[in-house]
Amino acid sequence: MIRTKKISFSYTEYEKTEELDSESLELVRAARDAALNAYAPYSKFKVGAAVRLESGIIVRGANVENAAFPSGICAERSALSNSVSNHPDDKPVAIVIASMTEDGITTDPPSPCGNCRQVISEEESRTGTRMKIILSGKNKTIVVDGINNLLPLQFDRNNLKINLP
Ligand code: THU
Fold it and tell me: Is 54 a catalytic residue?
């Protein structure tokens, strides 16, 4: 039997940043602030991420590049490594990603790379909690409820439950 299945995903788009609720707006400001601390001499593309934990604490991260390119780290992974390392029992409930070039905040909202999607997925699995993922452009903002909407058919801990011979 052959079946073709379809996966759909949804997101909410805001035309203006100010249309977001106040908690999300605060997180957008933190992510933009974090981007200012990025070390991105090679790409000149500065990314900031701000993670809100269940307790209300906001943890920031920025991309940190390296002359050996693969040794660089993205803002999302930087922020999540920071939050897991320093607040392991406080669950991330939202993450904002913002980016800027030499011309300022990018018009288009940044979208997390595949590696970062995988790391967000692991964090949702670890905590058993979906994250509100907010991709913030200069005005246009995309809000996604949970990594399932960005990474379908993801590889996660369930895939490792295999019966080895
Ligand atoms: N970057 C991030 O920090 N997050 C992403 O999701 C996409 C890309 C960084 C990596 C690199 O330092 C720069 O943006 C250009 O790719």
Answer: no
